[in-house]
Amino acid sequence: MIYNAQNAAGSRVYDVETKQQITRVLMVNTKTGAVVVAKQPTRLNHKGKLDRETIHFDAIHPIFGGGVVPCMFHCYGKRPLGR
Asked: How far apart are CA 36 and CA 27, in angstroms?
């Protein structure tokens, strides 16, 4: 499932293994294990869109906390670039 500002606004995303919150998240894809974040410092790419990067994980679990939309995501098994 793909989550973004339309269906998971305000959700927090955590890398469980490093116990760090992932910030500047634009999209979470639980099927492919991808978290798309805006690069820091914020800038536009050559197409005039927000410059972004993708972080890949082995598994991403949405946490609903009793609601109908996720309030957070737990990410496990961060993959190195190129894998």
From this structure: 5
| HEC string for 50-69 | ECEEEEEEEEEEEECCCCCC
CA distance 42 to 38: 7
Residue type, 8: A
- pLDDT tens profile 43-80: 998 999 999 999 999 999 999 999 999 999 999 999 98
Strand ordering across the sheet containing 52-63: 2-3, 25-29, 34-38, 52-63, 72-78, 12-15, 20-22
DSSP state of 33: T
Query: CA Rg, the chain, in Å?
Result: 13
pLDDT value at residue 57: 98
